[in-house]
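Supplementary Methods S3. Input chains for the assembly prediction are listed below.
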Amino acid sequence: MNRVELHGVSVRYPSQRIPTLKEWVVRARAARPDAVDALRDITLSVEAGEAFGIIGSNGAGKSTLLRVIGGIIPPSRGEVVTRGALAPVIELGTGFDGELSGRENVFFNGSLLGRSRAFMKRCEEEIVDFSGLAPHIDAPLRTYSTGMIARLAFAIATTIDAEIVLLDEVLAVGDAAFREKCSERIRAFHSNGATIVFVSHDLDSVRDLCSRAAWLEKGELRAIGPAEEVIAAYAPGS
Amino acid sequence: MTEVHVGRGFSPPTPVGGGLKPRPTLDERRYVAGETTTLARELRDIARSAHLLRNLVHRDITIRYKRSVLGFFWTMLHPLLLALILMMVFSSVFRFAVPRYELYVLAALLPWNFFSQTTVGSMASLAWNGALMKRVRVPKSIFTLSTVVAGVANLLLAYIPLLLIMLFRGAPIRPALAFLPVSLLLLALFTYGVSLTLSALAVYFVDVREMYNVALTALLYFTPVIYPIEVVPERFRQLFALNPLLYFIEIVRAPVHDGVLPSAHALTVATACALVAVVIGWTVFRRLSRGFYPYL
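Predicted structure tokens for the full assembly:
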């Protein structure tokens, strides 16, 4: 079964903003602003139990692709299908509130991901445990370092029994020990039939964790296939 | 964009954590280019996000109170102080032939404040939560809804000191007061509709907020909040009758200040306005929310 399917997906943004209502009325649809294609005609699928890497240079559309899969950006063309409960970890600070404590943020974040309070209550201990933040969990989140927030975000996303986890460069900020812990969990995770879509500049961890990968360049799919081969095409000799 | 949730007889994997109950159905979502969400789908999504709604409302209310020293009591104190000022100044300056003038004003001013603060707040709420909408898929109208719900909670609290003033001033408390919740519900619906329209527009255009603020000030003068409609010359009445808020002010004030049920005419017009506002609001929001992303 495919967890994620994209059929000819394009995403188009207006390149120029009409900043005011007054101007919009005056211009009265005189000239439609040009559009920029952030993604062009992407077709791919990710199976259950697969860890799928997305690589490419800055501005290639990797994060846009994750957001399209997460239902955050609607496709301008094509169709997106996801099968399973989603947990997006896109940029850090995702739905965290600096004034609330780490523990309260577990619940707030859970509510953003559509989980009930009772459900989060059952996950709470494991999340705190896995994140290794037990001594700080009741301190306000604004006192946390980026790495600590990353730990918490990763712990939440992978504990709430999501079937599709979208990870955007999250591992990059953790320390070596935590990254090892994350890698272990990711492996356990997809062996259970869940799917991970993983955006990273760290080719080693893509090679290490992902069975397949896609290379994006300027919004277009340049290569897709076994991670090893795609990485070799993207960065020969790496 | 469309989204289909199909429950199938799929048995999900055992969660990594262990001990957690597996989710019983497979959550299938489908986004197709060019399709907008439907009211039923949005409502169901909001219902599924009830926990989020609760959190947002809670945050809205606590943030409001954290900002002032008196906190929670300020909401209660504010109408009392206002009443005092009105009693001292306006009863002697503006001599409208209205008994218990401060009560007359408060019975309309509290709902007016609810309307103006909520509509303005809903624009800010959608802007503040832009970062959230860029990272997690949430039903976007939930932020507007949470602002309205928090506003209603606040308004209900403000009615407590109003009741105290009624008792203190010896205003008769009549059975018609029991009608107030119906009036407030209509006002809340109207406010929700207006908020949906404004907040969606404000995402695209930076000047909507300032323009609305100016309009709101003008609107207050054209709405009989601090003066009775009777002081408006006959020949302008028809113009005033075009203002929907006139009817909402009447239906919220009649049960409190006059102790009578609102007129059938005002009630009918207010109900129609509330429904039209919600329909327009939702239609605008639905159309515009599709393209929010680059502007958040």
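Chain A has a mean pLDDT of 86. The first helix of chain A runs from residue 21 to 27.
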